[in-house]
Structures are given as structure tokens and as C-alpha cells.
Amino acid sequence: MDIILKYFPKLTERQKEQFAALLPLYEEWNAQINVISRKDMEHFYEHHVLHSLAIAKVMQFKSMCEILDVGTGGGFPGVPLAIMFPDARFTLIDSIGKKIKVVSDVIERVGLDNATAMQIRAEALEGEYDFVVSRAVTTLDEFVPWVKRKISKSQYHNLRNGILYLKGGDLDAELAPFRKKVRTWDIIDFFEEEYFQTKKVIYLPLQ
Residue 163: phi, psi to the nearest 5? Predict the structure, then answer.
């Protein structure tokens, strides 16, 4: 938890309690289902929670903003962002039922009234969202067609509605088709830990 407070010192007591509750819940579930690799559990808050919160360094989601987390897996980045932005609304989806079972339980037990988890593919989901978030589900050129028709035309943030994507490595070739619109931030500029050395927040407006 200390690493979260290091970069987000103004959390409310409620938020601190919710973030602190995550590790024992994921440890409990990981004993039954391998949601997070055993090795990664040693760095749970850095590799999963803080990494997810890199989006919060780029975007402050406003009240009643609708956010869709596609391919949420164990609940990242959706669960940490839902704790960070309690007045925004989050829908976390994944096609794998056992992962959504875990995420639904975490949402309930942490008391996230602003988050819902669903087992569904992005292409089959109806509705519109202000932003789509995700963490390295696939290449961006494959990801965009899944979600481009789900972005609301109503604008009320500093960044236009679109995708906020967490990914690492050499992304020049992957981002080339979007170079006129895409914007990236190096997460190492926000968090000094070596783990974030090659990781980025990618923003692609879709409205």
C-alpha cells in the first residue's frame, strides 16, 4: 500500500481502506484460480494497482463519466480506477467467465457501487461510453474496431472521448497507423520504479 500513498497522498480514508482490501482478496482468489501469476503477487501493488493508476495521471474522470474496461482479466485497470474515481461509472468486461467471477466478487467485497463486471465480448456489448480503458489486450489496430462504435459523442473532458491504453515495449510500428492522432506518455515520468521503464499510457481519440 505504501507505494500507492507515495504517488496518491490525498486519498480519502475510504479509498485507503478499499486499496488495502485488494491484496488479501486477490491472495484468497489466487489460491483457487490463477488470476495473477504467483511471481507477480509479490509486487501486486506496483505491477497491477499502481500500473492501472497511471491512467489517473493522464485523465481525471468526471462525475457520471462512463468508462468501459475491455479484457479486464483480474480487474485491471478497472478496479483501481473505480476506487480512484468513485463518482464515475465503470463497466468491466472479459470473455472468460472465471475471471469475471473473481472481479464481481472483488467489486462486491470492496464495496464498489460504481462498478459492474460482465462476461461478454466487446463486439457484443451494447451502449456508449466516454472512454475505453484496457491493459495490453492486443495490438491497437485490432483493438480499435472492437470499440470504435461504442464511444459517446458527448464531450466534457479535457481529452476528447476515446481509448486510454496501457502497454509497454517498442510501440513505433504498432502506433504508426494512428500517428496523426495518437498521444503517449511514458509512465516512468509519473512513477520512478524500474518496472515502468518501457511502459506507456496511449491515448487515441475516437470522437
Answer: -105, 135
- In the DSSP assignment, the letter for residue 187 is G
> Residue 139 corresponds to which cell in the numbers above?
495490438
Measured in Å, how far apart are the chain's first and last C-alpha atoms? 36
Answer for the pair 134, 163: CB distance below 8 angstroms, yes or no.
yes
Per-residue pLDDT of the chain (207 residues; tens, 9 = 90+): 899 999 999 999 999 999 999 999 999 999 998 888 888 888 999 999 999 999 999 999 999 999 999 999 999 999 999 999 999 999 999 999 999 999 999 999 999 999 999 999 999 999 999 999 999 888 999 999 999 999 999 998 989 999 999 999 999 999 998 988 999 999 999 999 999 999 999 999 996
Q: Is the dihedral of CA 161, 124, 103, 139 positive or negative?
A: negative
Quote the longest CA-to-CA distance of the chain. 46
> Are the beta carbons of 108 and 51 closer than 8 angstroms?
no
Compute how many other C-beta atoms are within 10 angstroms of the C-beta atom of residue 32: 10
98 grid coordinates: 472465471
3 state DSSP class of 10? coil
CB 187 within 8 A of CB 199: yes
Q: In 3D, which of 61, 104, 102, 107 has the Cα closest to residue 84? A: 61
Residue 148 φ/ψ, nearest 5 degrees = -65, -25
Q: What is the pTM of this model?
A: 0.96
